[in-house]
Write a structure and sequence with these properties.
The complex is a heterodimer of chains A (286) and B (424). With 286 residues, chain A is mainly alpha-helical. Chain A has a single domain, classed as MetI-like (MetI-like fold). Chain A is built from 13 helices and no strands. In chain A, helix 3 runs parallel beside helix 7. The two termini of chain A are 36 Å apart. Chain B has 424 residues and is of the alpha+beta class. Chain B has two domains: 168 residues, 3-Layer(aba) Sandwich (D-Maltodextrin-Binding Protein, domain 2); 197 residues, D-Maltodextrin-Binding Protein, domain 2, CATH 3.40.190. Chain B has 18 helices and 15 strands. In chain B, the strands form five sheets. In chain B, strands 1, 2, 3, 4, 7 and 14 form a six-stranded mixed sheet that branches. A three-stranded antiparallel sheet of chain B has the order 11-8-12. In chain B, helix 9 crosses helix 10 and helix 17 packs antiparallel against helix 18. The chains are: A mainly alpha (286), B alpha+beta (424). At the A-B interface, loops of A face helix 4 and helix 17 of B.
Chain lengths: 286, 424
């Protein structure tokens, strides 16, 4: 009896302890710092309560960063899922097994590229004078096309690179998921004269609801960590058009002001908002 | 007798050997216990320096490792490193952050550990001035200078435009020279945010039009001069090469060196690059002049400083000081000159040498001498400058790309920010 009840604890206690130390210590430290007025260039500091949090709501760059972050999250997650499902279904429906495997291999390449390398490659590809991606538009219009310098297009161009990496990977996963489905329901739908897109929309994809929702959550978490991609491609510019919350926090903490407490308050707010939103969405999805 | 001779000769040989070893030991006099870690931004001179690792090892008894980051990242990482863990023995600092580093005690006064035989006084006096804060020298220059107007003689001649000598002439010339259909743009400016990026190129207009950052400790930049400077900068940006709206030095000089820009006003290293075929496609079509009046040249200097935290004891500091002295020595500058690394030259003895004159000719020499007369310190020499300058950089970038249009509103926002900074 003793052995049966203590064994789970023997496995759980060390791992949970390590997890607690690794996650709780920095979290608590971040919360404590957020309640202070620490700056990198000053040795002294004091506790100022919630002043940093209050200041955030009158900071136009913070409010802009919230909006940009939300827009980035919505655009990249939706676009990635749309591209993944469309490409996945197309591959499943219209290619031979041999060709499909070849495409799957090809689609894995973008995500294998280090994020920073991908960002540099695409940044140059979108150069208004030399870029290969802007070449067709230059030929048509006869003028250089400044997509990354334009505040209306910059975020979408960076989002395109994000989708290029993750949408193609997810397409491979969707194809492999479709291959695991039992053929009978799909064949039954076809016997009932359902068209190809109807078979997938009303039969196949609903059968994959759980894994697709999981993929969506993975992408949502991944999109929150796109600092490197945006930083290399636009540095938050033009102006503050692509400045996300993590980027603004980094700028305040290390690039511009050295206000680590102010930056920490943003990180704490972001953590709280993420936990709340993700919990609500997860419960709703279930 | 033979035995005695053998004994004496053996003793003499032993003495000779031991004295030789002792003299080698004295000559090498290794002062360093551990390899030196340097945080820098890419410079041709430093890349060249890495070829001489063995020379430094023979001199000091250790090696060095240089980590490179671009300017903004180098500033961010060095600030974070200096204020926390202190992993680097030597920091690459510049005119914009040397006051912050010195004031925060993140670096130590250089001359306390700079070997006298390396002759610091040989550095260009302007660069020595930039390296000096509160009466103490904090870094040894790796690069520096002021501004020059560099122009394409062929494009100006074809358009019948004389090199502009005033800002009004500059505006007219740039508009006339701009010809995007032929792939030629009137000018190349810096649009990217940053006290060392767009703000750096904007400041000569601000100071030239009579602007001041602070008067009697109060913000004075929210002025007619600032509005006029900003409006002029925005007007010129209509003719700036594509990619420069969010670009900095690399983008603007890259557009010029690839033959797509008629003229630009940039930091002096560009002039050396413009006549070097390994960088430039327009080597034989280049003219130099001081910036049009009333623009002030942006005096600047970058160099190597001794980190405080990573060099906890005097031996480590002396080791870092030796490295800096060796890395910026006359011998190293001579090697850079032989490699035609114009932007890496800082010593009067090298810049006045016959070899310098043979390579770059008298025209560039005269332009450099002329621009020296209008070179000034345009920024606010204060530890809080990077903070204030970067904040203006964001607002200026917004104005350049059109996400905000009211210049006065931008200056009001900056003034409120400056007042908050002063309260601390």
């Amino acid at each position: 009896m003793f052995k049966r009840t203590s064994l789970p604890y023997a496995f759980l206690v060390p791992t949970v302890s390590i997890l607690l130390v690794l996650s709780l210590v920095p979290t608590i430290y971040a919360v404590v710092i957020a309640l202070q007025d620490r700056e990198l260039s000053q040795a002294g500091y004091s506790f100022i309560g919630f002043q940093n949090f209050i200041d955030l709501f009158s900071d136009r760059r913070f409010l802009n960063a919230v909006m940009v972050s939300v827009k980035w999250e919505v655009v990249t997650v939706l676009a990635t899922m749309c591209v993944a499902i469309s490409l996945g279904v197309a591959l499943f429906e219209y290619t031979s097994t041999r060709l499909r495997n070849f495409y799957c291999l090809l689609f894995l390449v973008p995500v294998l590229l280090p994020r920073v390398s991908a960002a540099f490659v695409w940044k140059f590809a979108f150069h208004p004078l030399y870029g290969i991606a802007t070449y067709p538009l230059r030929v048509i219009t006869g003028m250089p096309v400044e997509l990354l310098s334009n505040p209306h297009t910059a975020l979408y161009v960076v989002a395109f690179v994000d989708v290029w990496q993750w949408g193609l990977l997810f397409a491979v996963i969707i194809v492999k998921l479709l291959e695991t489905l039992p053929p009978q329901p799909l064949e039954a739908a076809k016997l009932d004269n359902a068209k190809g897109w109807q078979v997938h929309l009303y039969v196949a994809l609903p059968m994959l609801r759980a894994p697709i929702i999981s993929l969506m959550f993975v992408k949502m978490i991944e999109s929150l960590r796109s600092f490197d991609l945006i930083y290399v491609m636009t540095r938050g510019g033009p102006g503050i058009a692509t400045e996300t919350l993590d980027m603004y926090a980094f700028a305040q903490g290390f690039i511009e002001s050295g206000k680590v407490s102010y930056a920490s308050s943003m990180a704490v707010l972001m953590m709280v908002a993420t936990v709340v939103v993700f919990t609500l969405l997860w419960k709703r999805a279930q | 007798m033979t035995k005695t001779i053998r004994l004496v000769s053996s003793f003499a040989l032993a003495c000779l050997l031991s004295s030789s070893v002792a003299s080698i030991a004295v000559a090498a006099a290794p002062v360093c216990a551990a390899p030196i870690k340097v945080l820098a931004q890419p410079r041709d001179g430093l890349t060249l320096l890495e070829n001489y690792q063995d020379e430094f090892k023979a001199l000091s008894g250790t090696t060095f490792q240089i980590d490179y980051l671009n300017e903004n990242d180098r500033r961010a990482k060095s600030r974070a490193d200096a204020s926390t863990v202190g992993n680097f023995n030597v920091y690459y600092v510049d005119e914009a952050n040397v006051a912050l580093f010195a004031d925060s005690n993140w670096i130590v006064p250089l001359m306390d550990y700079y070997p006298a035989e390396y002759d610091f006084s040989d550095f260009d006096p302007g660069r020595q001035k930039v390296a000096t804060v509160n009466g103490k020298v904090w870094f040894a220059p790796l690069t520096g200078g002021g501004d020059l107007m560099v122009y394409r003689t062929d494009i100006l001649a074809e358009a019948g435009v004389e090199p502009p000598t005033t800002v009004d002439e500059l505006m007219t010339a740039v508009a006339k020279l701009n010809n995007p259909e032929k792939g030629i743009y009137g000018i190349a400016l810096r649009g990217a945010r940053g006290s060392g990026a767009n703000v750096w190129r904007w400041m000569p207009y601000f100071k030239g039009f009579g602007g001041e950052w602070f008067v009697d400790g109060k913000p004075a930049f929210n002025s007619e001069a600032a509005v006029k400077a900003t409006q002029t900068y925005l007007d010129l940006f209509k003719y700036s090469a594509p990619g420069t709206q969010t670009g900095s030095w690399d983008e603007s000089t890259g557009a010029f060196l690839s033959g797509q820009v008629a003229l630009l006003i940039e930091s002096t290293p560009l002039s050396g690059m413009a006549v070097d075929p390994s960088y430039s496609t327009v080597v034989d079509k280049i003219g130099f002049m001081p910036p049009p009046t009333p623009l002030t040249g942006g005096g600047y200097g970058h160099g190597l400083a001794i980190a405080a935290k990573a060099n906890a004891d005097d031996t480590s500091k002396a080791c870092a000081g030796l490295f800096i002295a060796w890395a910026t020595s006359k011998e190293q500058e001579q090697r850079r000159l032989e490699e035609k690394q114009f932007g890496e030259l800082n010593r009067a003895s090298v810049m006045s040498s016959e070899l310098f004159n043979d390579i770059y000719g008298p025209v560039l020499g005269k332009a450099l001498a002329d621009t020296g007369k209008v070179t000034a310190v345009n920024f606010w020499q204060d530890p809080r400058w990077p903070d204030l300058g970067d904040r203006w950089g964001i607002i200026l970038e917004e104005l350049i790309n059109g996400t905000r249009t009211d210049i006065k509103d931008g200056l009001d926002e900056l003034e409120a920010y400056a007042n908050d900074l002063l309260k601390k």
